[in-house]
Write a sequence for this structure.
């Protein structure tokens, strides 16, 4: 029970820090003279380098039994580097973002490994722990908008550093390594080869990629897009608060939805709501609509993400858990982030919000087709080689 409280505290302050800073980073970069195209290039390059480095974190975390240390560094280093985003030099911004992403890219796999194990041992659910990140992000996003409205956006690193420091304190109280964690017990390359040899898992990754690349239009460019149609920074904070807060019920009740519909159908439901949310914004690109449509965020991202993490955990062998989650994270956050940051940044610059929302709607629609294939394969009970004998699709 104490470990659950520590993890919830960690996720809460991680969300507060990220919500108060991440959504307004593009505003800070724009103030420094970058347009959305160059911002996308900067973020895509940093993410690509981070993907190449990510397997090294698995080795450090598991082979040397240093999961807690890696988790602490993943929070502390980006927080300290944030002050340098005030630089006027693109190369400095690129180096800072790249280093920050290299360290922060390992947060999700390692934090989730602690959360999944702790939830299983306590008879709780992963979603009930992960939802604290959403609550923190909701409060942080709104607080960040108020901070930016009353103070200079160039000092947004101050609350980010303070809140991240509290998250580090919670991380220090965690065990050195997640109990019963079997991460990276086999070759990372061998694990990837086994996973990618299955066409159903590839369809799942493809659908996740196409759906989540649209999230950069929200996570990276929402404030800029909102301002371009006449919205204010303070109202953008309200929209971000609504979006993050709706993750709370989704994360809390995701397990019940999954139990009733199944993992694959829950994935399909979440993907369909992605299409709906982007379709509404495409048809009605107005500030009030962009605020109201955020009530769909939890039903889209929240349900999809929890179902995806549990799906990967279910179909992969115990000794391949980290490999499966790492592959998913590389595709879902890494490659999707690269494409999304580049594509949506260019679309926003060249065609405005209308074109970016159209692209997001079409991308998520194709993702729905791939997830439908995965769901249909489940009904036919096609076995996946990476699963145990009792786990099938």
């Amino acid at each position: 029970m104490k470990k659950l409280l520590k993890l919830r505290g960690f996720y809460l302050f991680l969300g507060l820090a990220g919500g108060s800073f991440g959504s307004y980073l593009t505003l800070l970069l724009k103030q420094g003279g970058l347009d959305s195209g160059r911002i996308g290039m900067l973020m895509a390059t940093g993410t690509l380098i981070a993907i190449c480095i990510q397997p090294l974190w698995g080795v450090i975390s598991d082979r040397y039994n240093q999961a807690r240390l890696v988790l602490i560094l993943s929070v502390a280093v980006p927080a300290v580097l944030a002050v340098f985003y005030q630089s006027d030099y693109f190369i400095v911004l690129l180096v800072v973002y790249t280093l920050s992403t290299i360290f922060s890219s390992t947060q999700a796999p390692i934090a989730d490994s602690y959360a999944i194990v702790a939830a299983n041992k306590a008879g709780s659910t992963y979603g009930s722990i992960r939802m604290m990140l959403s609550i923190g992000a909701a409060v942080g996003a709104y607080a960040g908008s108020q901070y930016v409205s009353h103070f200079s956006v160039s000092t947004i690193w101050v609350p980010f550093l303070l809140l991240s420091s509290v998250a580090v304190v919670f991380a220090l109280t965690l065990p050195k390594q997640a109990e019963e964690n079997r991460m990276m017990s086999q070759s990372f390359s061998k694990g990837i080869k086994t996973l990618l040899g299955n066409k159903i898992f590839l369809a799942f990754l493809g659908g996740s990629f196409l759906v989540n690349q649209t999230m950069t239009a929200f996570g990276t460019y929402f404030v800029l897009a909102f301002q371009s149609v006449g919205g204010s920074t303070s109202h953008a904070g309200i929209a971000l608060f609504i979006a993050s807060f709706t993750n709370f019920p989704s994360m809390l009740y995701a397990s019940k939805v999954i139990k009733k519909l199944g993992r694959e159908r829950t994935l399909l439901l979440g993907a369909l709501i992605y299409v709906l949310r982007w379709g509404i914004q495409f048809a009605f690109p107005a500030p009030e609509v962009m605020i109201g449509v955020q009530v769909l965020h939890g039903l889209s991202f929240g349900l999809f993400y929890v179902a995806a993490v549990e799906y990967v955990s279910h179909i992969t062998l115990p000794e391949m858990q980290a490999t499966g989650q790492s592959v998913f994270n590389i595709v879902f956050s890494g490659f999707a982030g690269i494409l999304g940051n580049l594509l949506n940044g260019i679309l926003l610059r060249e065609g405005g919000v209308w074109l970016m929302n159209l692209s997001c709607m079409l991308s998520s629609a194709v993702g729905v087709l791939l997830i439908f294939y995965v769901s249909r394969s489940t009904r036919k009970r096609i076995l996946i080689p990476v699963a145990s004998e009792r786990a099938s699709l």
Remarks:
- DSSP finds 18 helices and no strands in the chain.
- Confidence is low (pLDDT under 50) at residues 180-185, 382-393.
